[in-house]
Amino acid sequence: MEIIVLSPEGEYPGERQWVGRLFAAGLHRYHLRKPGWEDAEFEAFLENIPRDWRPKVVVHQCHRAVEKYHLGGWHCKDREEQLKTIPPLRQSVPFPATLSRSIHRLDDLRGDLTSWDYVFLSPVYRSITKANYGPRWERTELEGAIRRCKESSSAKVYALGGVEPANIPDCALMGFDGVALLGAIWSSHHPIRRFREALACMSHLPSECDISQFSTARPNTGAGAGIAGFHARASHRCMPTLQGVDPASPANRHETRASTRSSTARDEFCETCGLEAINLPVLP
Questions:
Q1: Are residues 154 and 224 in the same domain?
Q2: What are phi and psi of 244, to 5 degrees?
Q3: Residue 262: CB partners within 8 Å, gap ≥ 6?
Q4: Residue 121 β-bridge partners
Q5: 16: Cα separation from own chain's centroid
Q6: 61-83 residues labelled b (16+ CB within 10 A) or e (exposed)
Q7: What is the pLDDT of residues 70-104, one digit of tens each?
Q8: Of 204, 223, 248, at which residue does a domain stop?
Q9: Are both 161 and 218 inside the same structural domain?
Q10: Range of the domain at 275
Q11: 263 and 169 inside one domain
Q12: What pTM was computed for the model?
């Protein structure tokens, strides 16, 4: 499983600095998607990204910037005109660059994806950033489409839409190769903390930590409420199966006291697996 982070669509205070911090924290791929930007704004943003990090940036617009700035690749919208014009771009640069595309229908996931390195399938869950936007298929249909995709091509499939640290294990169970995070990162007051929570979930797959056991006592319904607005007592179940420990045993359940959000809030970690327990979402 791998993590990709998508940029916020609009202006975000200090975004360039946050991108640098994400790369420093271990992010390998950042998708720059700014529907309202002109090419000059893209280039101004990229000029301020250190050269060593530019190969980790994929652009959704201003595709000519890939060659100019030696970026990581091109991403294509789910539109017929781009699906025809972008794949030949791979031959236009003298360095490795990826081709990726968005998919919103399972029929497209079952189609010919041999030209693509990876795809985003969305929405997998109810969107964090878009109201009344959620999956339009049954889970069994989705899992079958992912299996057929893997049988017919080498394209990796990333889950997008409503993905957050708590449901990364579920994405793995469905067969996804990775997750693409958007609202889970940028709707949080602590983007780096949220990214590290996702990394922790990823590093514990498949046997060490069952993040599906996360829960909180109550949601924060005041200012800042949302995916990052939950606090109080959080707990999870560590699963050191290699040591033969029964994951259902009460002795194998670890709880931490999460601080309420404030300028003096302390980060809390499980002493057994190191997974951060503050601001975890409430699961249904």
A1: no
A2: 75, 20
A3: none
A4: 103, 159
A5: 18
A6: bbbebbeebebbbbbbeeeeebe
A7: 999 999 987 776 777 777 788 888 899 999 999 99
A8: 204
A9: no
A10: 207-284
A11: no
A12: 0.72
